[in-house]
């Protein structure tokens, strides 16, 4: 395993901002992962595991520790309890993995097509899109426990999944390095079509869409919103959706609705777990004065998606954070809700 010094991190992220890593290592085996951990510990360095860089904002000064890219590869398949189980190594490309599952006619992750990143990153944030979350199909997560040095197999329940959160980015943040994920998918299952954009896409059809058609539709919808990485599209130079959709109680939603009604607005709502209400963060952003296509010099809002803060070329991390904070202040002032960012912030105080 080679350990490099002073490696620029901006090119390794989709947002393309930030300074260098003091050290960077790429591990293709478990032994190399352990060696990287030992290297960091031996020098008293902070350790950060980098996946596809699609959900990351790196500080302009960079990161003074060791950045580890987990490059374990391989996918195994087996039948179990009527499901088709895919055990995918953490370094596998996520969208390519989804394509493989769809090609095997295995349902359960087709709506997450086009999401950039690696398999290992998906359980950490409980990645989801268009009505699906990976927690719905994850059977187990294989991870290196940095406290004990042992490799553990964590079942779905042990991962403490919730909306855009898990054990790995909350109560046990920094304790585990994900090595692989097993998914229990449904052979011959029907595609998940709960999302309004998908229903609209397939409206008027007499025959239900296939998994492959659903995957293609999801990718097309994502591209229309600049949420698919396409060379030359500056609106996709982002960290994806920058804010989580607020989840509120029914009473909180009613109070929010009254605030909006005084401006002649009706707040959209979606049902969330436990009888809660999910409010679209993009709607809050737009109705707080941040129109699609808005620019603040080199940073701005995507022309196609109100939740994407974009780097239009030459932006700094400080400029990204300044716009993020401006949006948060305005939404709090207008609607009394605090928007929580989705990306990880690396190298900041």
Distance between the termini: 30 Å
CATH class wording of the largest domain: Alpha Beta
Number of discrete helical segments:
8
Counting helices, strands and paired strands, the structural category is alpha+beta
- The tally of domains stands at 3
- How many strands? 20
Gross morphology is globular
In CATH, the topology of the largest domain is named Uridine Diphospho-n-acetylenolpyruvylglucosamine Reductase, domain 3
Rounded to an integer, what's the Rg over CA atoms? 20 Å
User: What is the mean pLDDT?
Assistant: 94
Helix content: 10-25%
Largest sheet: 6 strands, antiparallel
Give helix and strand order, one letter per element, not per position: EEHEEEEEHEHEEEEEHHEHEEHEEEHE
Q: Give the amount of beta strand, in percent.
A: 25-35%
The CATH architecture assignment of the largest domain turns out to be 2-Layer Sandwich
Please characterize this protein's 3D structure.
The chain has helices at 30-42, 94-103, 122-125, 196-201, 211-224, 250-261, 281-286, 317-335; strands spanning 3-8, 20-27, 47-50, 56-58, 63-70, 75-80, 83-89, 106-107, 128-129, 132-133, 138-145, 151-155, 176-187, 247-248, 270-271, 277-278, 295-296, 299-301, 309-311, 344-346. The chain has three domains: 3-70, Uridine Diphospho-n-acetylenolpyruvylglucosamine Reductase, domain 2 (2-Layer Sandwich); 75-224, Uridine Diphospho-n-acetylenolpyruvylglucosamine Reductase, domain 3 (2-Layer Sandwich); 234-336, Alpha-Beta Complex (Uridine Diphospho-n-acetylenolpyruvylglucosamine Reductase, domain 1). The chain has eight helices and 20 strands. The strands form six sheets. Strands 6, 7, 8, 11, 12 and 13 form a six-stranded antiparallel beta sheet that branches. It has a four-stranded mixed beta sheet with strand order 1-2-5-3, covered by helices on one side. It is an alpha+beta fold.
């Amino acid at each position: 395993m080679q350990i490099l010094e002073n490696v620029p991190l901006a090119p390794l992220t989709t947002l393309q901002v930030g300074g260098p890593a003091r050290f960077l290592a790429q591990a293709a085996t478990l032994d190399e992962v352990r060696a990287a951990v030992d290297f960091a510990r031996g020098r008293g360095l902070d350790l950060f595991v980098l996946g596809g860089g699609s959900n990351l904002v790196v500080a302009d000064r960079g990161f003074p520790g060791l950045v580890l890219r987990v490059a374990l590869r391989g996918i195994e398949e087996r039948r179990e309890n009527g499901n088709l189980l895919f055990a995918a190594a953490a370094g596998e490309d996520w969208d390519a993995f989804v394509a493989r599952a769809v090609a095997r006619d295995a349902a359960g992750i087709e709506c997450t097509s086009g999401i950039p990143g690696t398999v290992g990153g998906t359980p950490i944030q409980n990645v989801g899109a268009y009505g699906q979350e990976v927690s719905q199909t994850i059977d187990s997560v294989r991870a290196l426990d940095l406290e004990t040095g042992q490799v553990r197999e964590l079942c779905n329940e042990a991962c403490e999944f919730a909306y855009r959160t898990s054990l790995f980015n909350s109560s046990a943040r920094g304790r585990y390095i994900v090595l692989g994920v097993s998914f229990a998918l449904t052979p011959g299952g029907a595609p998940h079509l709960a999302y309004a954009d998908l229903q609209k896409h397939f409206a008027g059809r007499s025959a239900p869409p296939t998994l492959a058609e659903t995957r293609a539709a999801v990718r097309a919808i994502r591209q229309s919103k600049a949420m698919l990485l396409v060379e030359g599209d500056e609106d996709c130079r982002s960290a994806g959706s920058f804010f989580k959709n607020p989840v509120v109680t029914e009473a909180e939603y009613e109070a929010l609705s009254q605030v909006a009604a005084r401006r002649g607005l009706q707040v959209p709502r979606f049902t969330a777990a436990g009888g809660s209400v999910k409010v679209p963060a993009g709607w809050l952003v737009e109705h707080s004065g941040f129109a699609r296509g808005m620019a603040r010099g080199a940073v701005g809002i995507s022309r196609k998606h109100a939740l994407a803060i974009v780097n239009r070329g030459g932006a700094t991390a400080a400029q990204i954070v300044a716009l993020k904070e401006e949006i948060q202040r305005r939404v709090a002032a207008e609607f009394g809700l605090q928007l929580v960012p989705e990306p990880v912030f690396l190298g900041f105080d």
